[in-house]
Structure formats: C-alpha cells, structure tokens
C-alpha cells in the first residue's frame, strides 16, 4: 500500500510544504481504519481514524500522540529539540473520503492564547 502525506505548515510569514511517500499497511477494525508505516527516522507510526477523529501515534522515544477531532480542541505532548512541549490542537476542518483524509488545524499554546503554527494535512492511500 502506498501512503502519501502532504502537509502545508504556516509559521508566521513562512510556509513550508512537506510531501512524503511511504509503503505501509491498511486495516479496518472496530469501526476504525488504520494506516501503519515506518517513517524516515525508522519510527513506527500508526494512524487510527474514522469520520470525526484521527489519532496519530509515533512510536519514538518518547512516544508522541496527537489527536484531531472534527471541530474540537485536544491536548498534545510533542517531543521537540527543546524537550517535551505541550500544545492545544484546534482542528478546524476534517473530511474523510474514500482513501483520502484532509484536515486543517492549529497548534496553540497550552492556555490557547497564542497560535504556534497552522497546518493543512492531506493523507491519501492506494493499493
């Protein structure tokens, strides 16, 4: 299975586009779809999703988990070069179609008062 992850990141006035391709597996279980792959750093990544929620787990050291819920906010603990950082994820748009998931989200400071960056994530997969 081919998995494509395209992420447009806006940090202040700067825009970066990341376009990555992976070989992986797709599974369906308990009303959720799963995409499993190994990233360029050799870390296993699991994407668990349905029509209103995506959980992205990176089995790094330490493990990183991000949860995106349609039109809701959630907490994230993300390892960075400055140590573990806590953010609020504000998922603005979320759309699951056949073999495609797109979402827009913002990373906010823990108190929600400042925006760290905005993202436009497009995930596609095909046999």
TrEMBL record:
Pfam families tied to this protein: DUF1934
InterPro entries per UniProt: Calycin, DUF1934
Record's protein name: DUF1934 domain-containing protein
């Amino acid at each position: 299975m081919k998995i494509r992850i395209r992420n447009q990141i806006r940090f202040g006035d700067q825009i970066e586009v990341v376009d990555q391709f992976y070989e992986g597996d797709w599974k369906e279980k308990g009303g959720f779809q799963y995409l499993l792959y190994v990233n360029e750093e050799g870390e296993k990544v699991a994407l668990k999703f349905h029509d209103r929620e995506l959980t992205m787990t990176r089995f790094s050291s330490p493990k990183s988990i991000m949860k995106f819920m349609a039109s809701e906010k959630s907490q994230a603990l993300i390892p960075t070069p400055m140590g573990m950082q806590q953010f609020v994820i504000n998922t603005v748009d979320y759309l699951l179609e056949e073999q495609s998931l797109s979402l827009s989200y913002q990373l906010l400071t823990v108190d929600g008062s400042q925006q760290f960056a905005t993202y436009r994530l497009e995930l596609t997969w095909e046999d």
